[in-house]
Amino acid sequence: MKSDLLIDLGSLKLPSEQIIALSIISAFLVWHIAKLLRKPHFRPSRQRNPNRNWLQNRHRTSNPERPYFESRDLSNPQAQLEAISKVSFEKRRLLNKAEYEVLQVLDRVVAEGGQMHRIMAQTSLGELIQPRPSSATEQLRKDAHASINSKRLDFAIIDRFGLLTAAVEVQGSGHYHQKTFLRDAVKREALRRAGVELIEVHRSWNKEDIEVQVRRALGSKAPEPST
Questions:
Q1: Is position 164 within any domain?
Q2: How large is the C-alpha radius of gyration of the chain?
Q3: What separation in angstroms does the CA of 159 have from each of 137, 156, 169, 195, 221?
Q4: Element (H, E) at 182
Q5: CA dihedral 161, 150, 106, 180 (to 10 degrees)
Q6: Do 183 and 151 touch, CB atoms closer than 8 A?
Q7: pLDDT for residue 17
Q8: At residue 81, does pLDDT exceed 60?
Q9: Which of 16, 62, 64, 159 has the fewest CB neighbours in a 10 Å radius?
Q10: With the CA atoms of 187, 139, 161 and 225 taken in that order, what torsion angle do they form, in degrees rounded to the nearest 10?
Q11: What mean pLDDT, rounded, does the chain reach?
Q12: Is the pLDDT of residue 76 over 60?
């Protein structure tokens, strides 16, 4: 090759055209790096976390009146206190008009029977009956008890030992809705398995009908007419 086309760089000899190209590229890289370094807030980019903004926005838009117990686990007594501290309460009637009329009949029949029965209103079914320990596994018994514990009887007739003798349900118009019907079916089956009679008072019944059914369930007789 011609000697005027070669430039000696120590032990490396390259054509002059390549040296010129490398010089231009090197100069451009130096200029670009210097430009980046002159930016006042330059820092290497980081991969954006797609969930980061969502978390920040969630905290920014949170309700300042949101309860302290965000999980709202109302099995926690502290959470219960937090909930009731934010409202006021008022009294409400335990029984409606139809239920109160039935209670009056029950009180009279029980008093006339003379067997020391008592009437309890709106009592949790789980406080009156429970699965037999030998009837199933522990988990099955827990599931069965949980299924009845929130169910209430309109009236429970208990004997002098505190045991449930008979249950009374007043079947008003609401008892025929689908969900109510299913809840009643749960109570009906649980009572049947416990050997407890369920007296269902229908809207067509009069006071005499209720008296007859309750006396039959308690094994008592109607009082003799006074002479």
A1: yes
A2: 42
A3: 30, 10, 18, 15, 16
A4: helix 178-194
A5: -150
A6: yes
A7: 63
A8: yes
A9: 64
A10: 10
A11: 81
A12: yes
Residue with tokens 């007859």: 212
pTM of the model: 0.64
**What six digits make up the tokens of 197?**
């009679």
Report how far residue 49's alpha carbon sits from residue 56's, in angstroms, rounded to the nearest whole number: 12
CA distances from 48 to 36, 58, 106 (A): 21, 17, 72
Residue 2, CB-side half-sphere exposure with 13 Å CA sphere: 3
* Residue count of the chain: 227
Look at residue 147 and tell me whether its pLDDT is greater than 90: yes
Q: Do 116 and 160 contact (CB within 8 A), yes or no?
A: yes
Contacts of 103 (CB under 8 A, 6+ apart): 95, 119, 121, 155
Domain limits for position 139? 97-218
Residue 178 domain-assigned (yes or no): yes
Structure tokens, 154: 């309109």
According to the per-residue pLDDT averaged within each range, which of 11-15, 44-48, 197-201 is highest? 197-201
In a domain, 33, yes or no: no
Token duo for residue 200: 């269902």
- Please count the other Cβ atoms lying within 10 Å of the Cβ belonging to residue 186: 14
Q: Who wins on pLDDT, 66 or 115? A: 115
pLDDT at 73: 82
pLDDT band, very low/low/confident/very high, at 213 (cuts 50, 70, 90): very high
Instruction: Report the Cα–Cα distance between both ends of the chain, in Å, rounded.
Output: 150
> Based on the structure, what is the number of domains in the chain?
1
Strand order in the sheet with 197-201: 118-124, 152-158, 164-170, 197-201
Query: Is 205 within a domain?
Result: yes
Element holding 7 (H helix, E strand): strand 6-9
